[in-house]
Design goal:
11 strands, D-amino Acid Aminotransferase, Chain A, domain 1, 391 residues, Dna Ligase, domain 1, 5-stranded antiparallel β-sheet, 4-stranded antiparallel β-sheet, 17% strand
Length: 391
């Protein structure tokens, strides 16, 4: 546990103190805010926009450098952008949307922000907006449970319904050997990473390393959680048999009770074990009332698919099994963390029903907007009116 987290844990469970912590945290997400008058002037005149971007790129050099790097990556991999002749104007507009509204370049691409008015852009939840919502909704002390996948497992172990261990130091070698003896094929994840980064299926019989060498390699990279492999149900395997295809169920804990405003499914591609869009997976929007996919599939570069490219399963109309049971389980888990009012649950369906893959206390809001092709800010703001907010 970091020094910062240790200090947080010592803060009493008193609302005004937790609220003060949230307000202090919120300030960091308002460090880079352009005045509305400058945004309006830039939106009205391309030359003013270019000058404004140049000004803030110099003023916010480190912030701008990160955005520039992400823009470069998007320009290379997005089919719609690769051969653009007006790439400088596009680059300027993407950087402007980061400075003015907080949109990441992939959001700019997938929300089709080019050419949209200020009001149309404001209808979407940007990356910065999401972090501001998280700070206002989620208690910073209780939230840290979701910053370490091993800690999340300990709290919600009954819902994971599989064995898992954490390893981080040499004295955990015996623990690792015992686990591998029971599960020679297992899933590894670094506890503080997201978007499928560091997730891999490890087969000790074919990895080419001894058990001890494998252990040393992992702890050398940081703390890991190792999990018994999930065998998904035949229904979900139809989407893609090599990946565990999951559902992200987002819960809001309101004064009126726990609600599920958005759900989407993730399906891997080809021989991939991972279903995350950042690793090539496809996304589909689910009708929260029925559990039926109501959209085409989408990838992270704005590609749209009526059918899964490998399995030929049509996204729209795909029925997620035992839907009501999954919704009930996610609400039940959320009730155990009343001070974390916004959680994204990754759920997998097996022959024995639904199990939890992990919980996310700062769940992305990009996907519901990609799959339904509309902004959800008005929806989120409406739910916030029925919450006890920290800031």
């Amino acid at each position: 546990m970091s020094i910062k987290e240790t200090v947080r844990q010592k803060i009493p469970d008193v609302f005004w103190m937790r609220s003060l912590l949230a307000k202090l945290k919120l300030r960091q997400y308002y460090r880079y805010v352009m005045p509305e008058a400058e945004i309006d002037a830039a939106e009205a005149d391309p030359q003013v926009k270019a000058q404004t971007v140049k000004k803030y790129a110099a003023q916010w050099a480190e912030y701008a450098a990160k955005a520039e790097k992400n823009i470069g990556e998007i320009m290379k991999k997005a089919p719609d952008y690769r051969n653009r002749q007006d790439d400088q104007a596009l680059h300027t507009d993407m950087l402007f949307c980061r400075f003015a509204y907080g949109f990441q370049p992939d959001e700019y691409l997938c929300f089709h922000l080019e050419g949209k008015t200020k009001a149309e852009k404001r209808a979407f939840v940007s990356d910065i907006d999401r972090f501001r919502y998280v700070v206002r909704m989620n208690d910073a002390v209780d939230f840290v449970i979701f910053m370490d996948k091993a800690r999340t497992y300990q709290v919600f172990k009954d819902y994971y319904r599989r064995e898992a261990i954490s390893i981080s130091k040499p004295e955990h070698l015996d623990r690792f050997r015992d686990f591998v003896g029971r599960h020679p094929v297992f899933v590894k994840k670094q506890v503080d990473m997201s978007k499928g980064d560091s997730v891999a299926l490890v087969d000790t019989s074919t990895c080419g390393k001894t058990v001890d060498a494998l252990f040393n390699e992992m702890i050398g990279l940081g703390k890991h959680i190792l999990e018994e492999r999930i065998i998904q149900s035949p229904e979900m395997a139809r989407l893609n048999p090599t990946s565990v295809n999951t559902v992200r169920c987002i819960t809001f804990n309101t004064k009126s009770g726990i609600v599920v405003p958005f759900c989407f499914m993730k399906a891997g591609r080809g021989g991939s074990f991972i279903d995350n869009a950042g690793k090539g997976g496809l996304l589909g929007g689910i009708d929260v009332r029925t559990g039926i996919c109501g959209t085409d599939g989408f990838d992270e570069t704005a590609g749209q698919y009526r059918f899964h490219p490998e399995t030929n399963i049509e996204f729209k109309g795909f029925q997620i099994p035992e839907w009501d049971r999954m919704i009930a389980t996610c609400k039940e888990m959320s009730a155990k963390m009343p001070n974390v009012r916004f959680i994204g649950w990754d759920m997998a369906h097996t022959k024995d029903g639904w199990i939890t893959v992990e919980g996310n206390g700062a769940s992305q809001m990009i996907v519901p907007q990609i799959v339904w092709q509309r902004g959800i800010k008005a929806d989120v703001e409406e739910y916030l009116k029925d919450m006890t907010l920290l800031a």
